[in-house]
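[Solved] Which block belongs to which protein?

Original post:
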Amino acid sequence: MKLKDAVSRRVQELCDNNNLTVHGMSLKTGVANSTLADMVKARNESMQIKFIYGICAGLNMSMAEFFNSPYFDKEQLTD
């Protein structure tokens, strides 16, 4: 899978685990709703790390915890 798809799945997983919609996550993290929606829909080939940092800060998790997911295993990624 592409990195953008891995990020998409992880963000959606975090929404689900925290009982949040994309809009709810936006309110909780301060990351714009449109940015999160683009991440979840894997619309962009690249994204700024500051958005992932914002998600982590808003959810009280480290960036290591964000990336500690099978989605980011080297064998899973194609780019």
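(Second protein starts here: sequence line, then its structure tokens.)
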Amino acid sequence: MITELVDTLKREKRLDASGYRSLLECCNADEISYLHSSAQETAIGRFGHRIYIRGLIEITNICRNDCLYCGIRKSNRNISRYWLSTDEVLARCSFGFERGFRTFVLQGGEMPDDADSYIEDLCRRIRAGFPDCAITLSLGERREESYRRFFEAGATRYLLRHETHNVSHYSRLHPAEMSLDKRLHCLETLKSTGYQTGTGIMVGSPYQTMDNIVEDIVYIGRLQPEMIGLGPFIPHKDTVFSGWYSEHQPSANAEGMDNYSGRTDLYDRRIDLTMKLISIFRLMFPDALIPSTTALATISADGREKGILAGANVLMPNLSPENIRGDYSLYDGKASSGAESAEGLDALKTRIERIGYHIVTDKGDYNRK
């Protein structure tokens, strides 16, 4: 049954909701292996054994939002706030360029609207200084005019995870002033503007159900993004969910939780589900850029390798100034040194080669065949 579903997904690029759920709930090791190997074969058929790298520059941890799960939420008074100058960002681009990076990902908290000129100027100066490099932005919800300005200034990719497509679930993770409708509208605007657009979810977030994840898969199937980011949820000590899984032991049928093989929430299955989702999306979108995320590497020593063997084809070493990496604290224990850093690129190359892959330095644009 599961192998037939995998074959159908590989051939037709979609399943019905019950088919996705069956893949996610599968607990047969051989069938799970078949899912991952099919996705891996698809990725190799499209990209060979190449893994693309992106240099991640965390330009600011200032954020106007107060998302309940995020360590840089505006109400957190326990972190030092920073905002990199344009010259500081350009210096990191130079450092990365010398080491082979040809894509720079500018990530940050959701800055005020008057930061648009800073972002626009930054894009123009990176485009002028590094004309053969791609610029990816991950700066949250902006105005339509803002997205257009950044695009015209040289940014070509934009990452904006929708986090969850379920309105009720969204409302339990975000303050009342934020809305799922706005997030989805921003994604449509990015697509229509011309960006290679990325979205994705947190796997195992509070109150998440299997139905929520299936709904997310169906939505992403409609959106047809060029990039898909999937990361396991990791709590942060300075948020309302800091002790959620240690202090709240939900009963088997607690509200918002699934009972699976004796476990009471999806948090327990974060790695398993993240890898399954990487494989599912690789089969749905053979050409997509799918990272093996820092969050996966944070909770599993071989997380980046697991993601690649499940079908991922992108890694994002941290290129931020070393002195501020600890302040960009989205969740506890975020990996940003060693093989997760630009300085550790040689170590990363060695680890990837051990599983039969190699890092390439070209931009790796999305290019549907």
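Accepted answer:
You had them paired correctly. Confirming on the second one: The chain has a mean pLDDT of 91.
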